[in-house]
């Protein structure tokens, strides 16, 4: 029987640590993206997104990175104008 070394973490400890690191990285990326677009969002919506990102791990940042950016660009009024072809 192999001796168990108490100084080496079990496989599930390594897996949970990796999952936590990914969740933390996703939250940091989402917060940075939110801060960069803060000038184009109303204060209430900015606060709502920040709370969602911080208090709903993984789902909040994923929602901001997928849906929040799109609502940001469509509500900001900074859409590019269509080029009209002259015929």
UniProtKB/TrEMBL annotation:
<dbReference type="InterPro" id="IPR027379">
    <property type="entry name" value="CLS_N"/>
</dbReference>
<keyword id="KW-1133">Transmembrane helix</keyword>
<keyword id="KW-0472">Membrane</keyword>
<keyword id="KW-0812">Transmembrane</keyword>
<feature type="transmembrane region" description="Helical">
    <location>
        <begin position="46"/>
        <end position="67"/>
    </location>
</feature>
<dbReference type="Pfam" id="PF13396">
    <property type="entry name" value="PLDc_N"/>
</dbReference>
<keyword id="KW-1003">Cell membrane</keyword>
<feature type="transmembrane region" description="Helical">
    <location>
        <begin position="14"/>
        <end position="34"/>
    </location>
</feature>
<dbReference type="GO" id="GO:0005886">
    <property type="term" value="C:plasma membrane"/>
</dbReference>
<protein>
    <submittedName>
        <fullName>PLDc N-terminal domain-containing protein</fullName>
    </submittedName>
</protein>
<feature type="domain" description="Cardiolipin synthase N-terminal">
    <location>
        <begin position="25"/>
        <end position="69"/>
    </location>
</feature>
